[in-house]
Specification:
Layout lengths: L4 H4 L1 H8 L3 H4 L1 H20 L5 H21 L3 H27 L7 H8 L2 H19 L2 H22 L14 H4 L5 H19 L2 H5 L8 H22 L4 H21 L4 H16 L1 H13 L3 H29 L5 H18 L11
Length: 365
């Protein structure tokens, strides 16, 4: 919710801070850059720390930075606060999959990671549209106050019930550079970078895409449809992921590509837009779980270092999507966003199709 909150309130946020929508969209970009800056060095420096300590640190950071954004009078301070929030996000995402996988037996690893990552489509289904509605009813700043309160409540919950795990012993630790050399890791990271770039290029500027179509009043509804179908996609992924990981990843890429093609060709039809967004949400819902599970399976004991690389890759994609989307919006207009997204998905399909041995292996019959 905190990461993509500006996507649902972009027009109000840009007006309140006195900047363009493309500039306001960079609050997503700098968040991603913060995660880029923080994931590898912080995860690398804290591999020996208890895992819950890092989780608590990230949540404390969310509380403070959300409050700063809520009261910030100038755009520059808002960007700084979002950057720092992104640093804490890099820490969180760097440990999340490994944390979840240690709670269960190896044969349940995929489902555990899927459940842990269910927060993302839930946030897209409920949080971002709720933020848009809250901003419309009160003020966009109130959405960040709510996020600070929510993070504080989760912090108390974590301290009360979430089990802790020790960090790695010194002889067990692997550097990110060595982790990237493990067979399968590089194609997983590369495909994730480009897939996430394609997603955030369109999602960050979804309000800007809808307004010229006469659907400016439907932003919350579109986001709700996206999130609801993302939940459905996640549910299906959780059932199939431990047996059909490769098929799920290929399906996600192809379905996403088909959805943006429809959005490009028949964007004048609100029904077509809603159907396309539903397909896009379904494709995106389980994609993060598939990527994280593929990485966890391929990395073995180097999972923490590999996760920090994947988190960095994801945030390159988020930052790249926000920046590229802003450039496309400013130069070619909102109608070019689906076509640019489709072009990015072509190399993703090529990578996943070719990475059939270690990254996205064929199921063993």
């Amino acid at each position: 919710m905190l990461e993509m909150m500006p996507a649902g309130i972009l027009p109000a946020m840009s007006s309140g801070l006195g900047v363009s929508e493309a500039a306001a969209g960079q609050t997503v970009t700098v968040y991603a850059i913060g995660s880029l800056a923080g994931a590898i060095p912080i995860i690398g420096a804290t591999m020996g720390w208890p895992r819950r300590r890092l989780l608590v640190m990230a949540l404390c950071g969310y509380v403070v930075t959300s409050l700063v954004v809520a009261v910030s009078p100038v755009f520059a301070l808002t960007l700084v606060a979002r950057f720092v929030a992104g640093v804490f996000a890099g820490v969180l995402w760097g440990i999340l999959a490994g944390y979840a996988s240690r709670l269960v037996s190896p044969e349940q690893r995929g489902r555990a990671v899927t459940i842990a990552l269910a927060g993302t489509p839930i946030a897209l289904a409920l949080g971002t549209p709720a933020g848009a509605l809250l901003a419309a009813a009160f003020d966009w700043r109130s959405t960040f106050v709510v996020m600070a309160v929510a993070a504080a409540g989760i912090l108390v919950w974590v301290l009360a019930i979430v089990p802790d795990f020790p960090g790695q012993e010194k002889h067990e630790r692997t550097s990110p550079l060595k982790a990237i050399r493990v067979p399968g890791i590089l194609p997983i990271v590369l495909s994730a970078v480009v897939f996430i770039t394609a997603h955030y290029l369109l999602y960050t500027y979804i309000a800007s895409f809808l307004i010229p179509l006469g659907m400016g009043g439907s932003v919350s509804a579109v986001l709700l449809v996206f999130g609801a179908f993302a939940l459905a996609g996640l549910w299906g992924t959780g059932i199939l992921i431990d047996r059909h990981l490769r098929v799920l990843m290929l399906t996600a890429v192809l379905l996403f590509a088909a959805a943006v093609l429809v959005m490009g060709f028949v964007s004048g039809s609100p029904v077509a837009v809603f159907v396309s967004v539903a397909a896009w949400g379904f494709a995106f819902g389980g994609s993060g779980s598939v990527q994280q599970t593929a990485l966890t399976n391929a990395a073995g004991s180097a999972v923490d270092a590999a996760q920090s690389v994947l988190v960095t890759g994801w945030n390159i994609g988020i930052a790249g999507g926000g920046a590229l989307g802003g450039a496309v919006l400013g130069s070619a207009g909102a109608g070019a966003l689906p076509w640019t997204t489709f072009a990015l998905l072509i190399p993703v399909l090529a990578i996943v199709t070719g990475a059939r041995r270690h990254a996205f292996p064929r199921p063993v019959v």
